[in-house]
Amino acid sequence: MSKKKKKQQNVEAVYHKKLIKRRKPNRSVWGDIFLYLFLLLVAVVMVFPIVYAVSSALKPLDELFKFPPRILAQNPTLDNFSDLFVTMGKSWVTFSRYLFNTVFITFVGTFGHLIVASMGAFVLAKYDFPGGAGFFKLVTVAMMFTGYVTQIPNYLILNALGWIDTYWAIIIPAFASPMGLFLMKQFMEGLPTSLIEAAKIDGANEWKVFAGIVMPNVKPAWMTLIIFSVQGLWNNKAATFIYSEAKKTLVYAMQQIQSGGIARTGQGAAVLVVLMVVPIAIFIFSESQILETMASSGLKD
Amino acid sequence: MKEYWKKYLTLRRHNLQVAWKKAKRSKMCYAFLFPYALLFTLFYIAPVVASIFFSFTYYNILEPPSFIGLQNYISLILEDDIFLIGLKNTLMIAVITGPLGYIMSFLFAWLINELPRWVRSVAVVVFYAPSIAGNCYVIFSVFFRGDAYGYVNAFLMNLGIIDKPVLWFIDPKYMLPICMLVILWMSLGTGFLSFVAGLQGVDRSQFEAGYMDGIKNRWQELWYITLPNMKPMLMFGAVMSITQAFGVCDVTMALCGYPSTDYAARTIVTHLFDYGFTRFEMGYACAIATILFLIMILCNKAIQSLLRRVGT
């Protein structure tokens, strides 16, 4: 078995070599070497702050302030993380409550966004109806300005709805993120229309077509919507729309710890790691699906 | 002329009737789109309209808004020096980090495209991670700490380039350049992913044809084959870059403080926060938001018309 596998790998390697050779008759070797060295250098620069943050979080107290500094921790410990939980445990609102707030907001916001945006994207991609194209154009325009522009009127609108200081102030606006609808619609356009027509001939109604045929076929786009939505919601401080301490998010609480100054340096680094690990982990697990979706992300005119 | 108008009107009416009939038949479509359209209108369209409306009023939430015409805009441009600093800073950041970040995104996406599969997927994570790493950028305040134990200071002093530590985030001279550095570090975002994916999808046979036609090196290949194929992604990436470049505020607020020394790191968005959420002068803040909105939309439209010419 293993022999067979090896052989197969060999064949693949040869094929691969040939493929590369065939594809690049116009490459100079020195150009290749120079460009890849450059790429490597930049990659090291890009990853250095992240590596440094992670290793700081693992450093015991005496190493944190060592000078000259070491990049990697000599005696890595998880003390900073346990200290962080001790500090959080002493706060007036318990740690689990902050965690619940963030998880609840992230989960509900992402789920709702996925459903609402997919429903919209489905009809925009697959049906021709008056106003559809115009609406989609509006959505692409909405991607051209940041959320900060709308933040103040949003406050007034949420206030009028009576949602200030509730979870809904964060969750409901997240449903309408234009990016998700845009990516979903572009991806759904790639689905063969015959698939939908066949289902209709078999007597499925629109909802059945959407839930039973279209949605299972656009799973890569789900992951993309999920990562963009989680990224926004997991790191949402929610400080402008939510006042009650009991409803504030993990990020907010952790940044309070971080601003505790030099004595909290280790815990601050631990906070950085906790906050970045979720979006990066989701991205690593779903990279190929996200890239598949992004392949159809182009803006055509 | 009258004849012409009559014809035009009947045509219009006919088109409307057709559209109305079509709309009646596609009730289901509207039902599907309704939830999203409602929320989108409520949280994206209505705020923009409201922002434009309130920008002509004095409004502090407690009292009903009173109409004051163009007064907000006049004060912004003629009297508010700090706004002008913010505008200048935002434009500087946008002009430098926007195009540079965009070019970097494309360049690295293009370079890693020819790597073997598994190296490529590692490289994508490495380059993309900074932009999704939460507030990891505050680690730069450790590198650029103001005393002699800050790593950059210590390094430069060892080399003898400076003889006393530089207060990187307090001295107005250094604030913006360092913030730009950090923003560049984070600039390989959604646009970068779009480029990576788009490059994968370029039809291989076009390259073969190009070799036949005598394309000599990778740069010609880039300009004549790759770029024209990537046009839609280039558009999308540009939108992402511009939006990000004009919306800078988190980085400057976290690193240089809010407010920063001499307002040297103030951007339009932090000015907006100042008036909106600290002073509660909503009318004035809405005028700032409207200006930012107009700048972003105009810039996007201009860049898009420029990009249409790529590879032709």
Overall description:
- The complex is a heterodimer of chains A (301) and B (312).
- The relative contact order of chain A is 0.12.
- Chain A has helices spanning 2-23, 29-58, 61-64, 79-90, 95-126, 132-142, 147-161, 168-175, 178-189, 193-201, 206-217, 219-234, 250-258, 265-285, 287-294.
- Residues 18-22 of chain A have low confidence and may be disordered.
- Chain A is an all-alpha fold and 301 residues long.
- Chain A is 73% helix and 0% strand.
- Chain A is globular and about 70 Å long.
- Chain A is built from 15 helices and no strands.
- By secondary structure, chain B is an all-alpha fold.
- Chain B has two domains: 1-39; 79-135 and 175-307, Orthogonal Bundle (MetI-like fold).
- Chain B has 15 helices and two strands.
- Chain B has helices spanning 2-25, 27-54, 71-79, 81-112, 117-132, 140-143, 151-159, 172-185, 190-200, 204-212, 218-229, 231-246, 250-256, 268-278, 282-307, and strands spanning 57-58, 66-67.
- A two-stranded antiparallel ribbon of chain B has the order 1-2.
- The radius of gyration of chain B is 25 Å and the shape is flat.
- The two termini of chain B are 42 Å apart.
Distance between the termini of chain B: 42 Å
Find the count of extended strands of chain A (DSSP E, 2+ residues).
0
Give the CATH architecture of the largest domain in chain B. Orthogonal Bundle
Strand order of the largest sheet of chain B: 1-2
Order of SSEs of chain A: HHHHHHHHHHHHHHH
In the CATH classification, which architecture of the largest domain in chain A applies?
Orthogonal Bundle
Q: How many separate structural domains of chain B? A: 2
CATH structural fold name of the largest domain in chain B: MetI-like fold
Radius of gyration of chain B: 25 Å
Could you tell me the strand content of chain B as a percent range?
under 5%
Residue-averaged pLDDT of chain A: 83
Helix content of chain B: over 70%
Find the structural class of chain B using helix and strand composition: mainly alpha
Shape of chain B: flat
